[in-house]
Write a structure and sequence with these properties.
By secondary structure, this protein is α/β, with parallel strands linked by helices. It has a single domain (about 1-325), classed as Alpha-Beta Barrel (TIM Barrel), CATH 3.20.20. About 30% of the residues lie in helices and about 20% in strands. It is built from eleven helices and 14 strands. The protein has helices at about 45-60, 75-85, 105-110, 125-130, 135-150, 170-175, 205-215, 280-285, 290-300, 305-310, 325, and strands at about 1-5, 10, 10-15, 60-65, 90-95, 115-120, 155-160, 180-185, 220, 230-235, 240-245, 260, 265-270, 275-280. A twelve-stranded mixed beta sheet has the order 9-10-11-8-7-6-5-4-3-12-13-14. It has a two-stranded antiparallel sheet with strand order 1-2. The two termini are about 25 Å apart. It binds S-adenosylmethionine and iron/sulfur cluster. The site of iron/sulfur cluster has 13 residues, from helix 11.
Length: about 325
């Protein structure tokens, strides 16, 4: 079992398989995109598989694939099949924008994917286009229906954006009336790929909760599962539930069980840090599995206690302004 220097158990790896994406959500990257890394700079599937095998022996039993958009990288399904066979991994999750996913859902079911987080910021096709700068609403909804039809546990992720999709919050919650899904509202963070931390008006978790409570005065607080990043609620009588993720207020750091690996092999022990070591460089210089274990143990022995400390440890002139696609959201 893995623990950090604050006694937090670490069992969850978020693995970003690419920084590339076919959408341009404005809170994540600029319209022209970001400087996508060259293919040889990405961890290869073989390298990622090796890292997961090593980490699984150390106590990581849950992996989430993310990006960028994982499905824009060729060969993803074969990689998922390989991961699904790794001993010690109990849970394999995916976060996707759903644009390329619909026809692959039966295969995801067949390989035993544990759950899928589908990002959708609006149920209005025009607003969806405005936010993502692409016309892909229908494809995303098709993925949503496929996930439900195939009985895959599904969570919807919605970033709450001032002046953009506030009117979508209640219609998205209404999806939980008949469907046993969880919809989660995320605080927007400054990770938007612009190169500088902008002074945007962010809706925080209290703003989001107040808005929801003004519509559902009888909202019930649910017990949050251990290590949950969301504070969870239910509208009485509804089949599903809703959650609020205080990603910018950073209210969940005390029970954080996650580490992250970026597409270029940078290991992060906090979303807000600047990277703690680079696994790709180590592996390409001939590191053994034991060297990788040692590097991770050292990094966990010096882990920031929360996202504020991690942000504070960044070098000067290195604001939290990189794209989430380069981190793995
Ligand atoms: N492309 C996939 C997707 O959109 O689901 C996976 C990668 S994306 C970076 C993962 C999650 O991060 C998405 O739910 C997205 O909405 C969220 N995200 C991206 N940029 C964000 C930001 N600046 N603030 C809050 N959430 C953000
Ligand atoms: Fe692409 Fe996901 Fe970023 Fe949107 S949030 S631009 S879908 S990586």
């Amino acid at each position: 079992m893995l623990y950090d220097n604050h006694g937090r158990k670490i069992n969850y790896l978020r693995l970003a398989v690419t920084d590339r994406c076919n959408l341009r959500c404005f809170y994540c990257m600029p319209e022209k995109g970001i400087d996508f890394v060259k293919r040889q700079e990405l961890l290869s599937y073989e390298e990622m598989e090796r890292v997961v095998r090593v980490f699984a022996k150390m106590g990581i039993n849950k992996v989430r694939l993310t990006g960028g958009e994982p499905f824009v990288r060729k060969g993803l399904m074969d990689f998922l099949w390989k991961l699904s066979e790794i001993e010690g991994l109990d849970a394999l999750h995916l976060t996707t924008n759903g644009t390329l996913t619909a026809k692959l859902v039966p295969d995801l079911k067949a390989l035993g994917i544990t759950s899928v987080n589908l990002s959708i910021d609006s149920l209005d096709a025009d607003r969806f286009k405005q936010i993502t700068r692409r016309d892909s609403y229908e494809q995303v909804m098709e993925t949503f229906h496929q996930l439900l039809e195939n009985g895959i546990e599904t969570k919807l992720n919605t970033v709450v954006m001032h002046g953009q999709n506030i009117d979508d919050i209640i219609p998205i919650i209404e999806l939980t009336k008949e469907k046993n899904i969880s919809v989660r509202f995320l605080e927007e963070m400054p990770f938007n790929g612009t190169g500088k931390k902008e002074d945007v008006k962010f809706w925080n978790q209290a703003d989001i909760l107040n808005h929801i409570k003004s519509h559902y005065s009888n909202l019930v607080k649910l017990q949050d599962p251990p290590h949950s990043t969301s504070q969870n609620y239910q509208v009485p009588g509804y089949a599903g539930s809703l959650g609020i993720i205080a990603s910018y207020s950073r209210l969940f750091c005390g029970s954080c069980n996650r580490i992250r690996l970026t597409p270029t092999g940078t290991m992060k022990t906090c979303l807000y840090d600047n990277g703690v070591f680079n696994i790709k460089k180590m592996m390409r210089a001939g590191a053994t599995d034991q060297d990788i274990c040692t590097a991770l143990l050292e990094a966990l022995g010096n882990r920031a206690k929360d996202g504020f400390e991690a942000e504070g440890r960044r070098p000067l002139n290195n604001d939290i302004s990189e794209s989430m696609a380069t981190i793995g959201g």
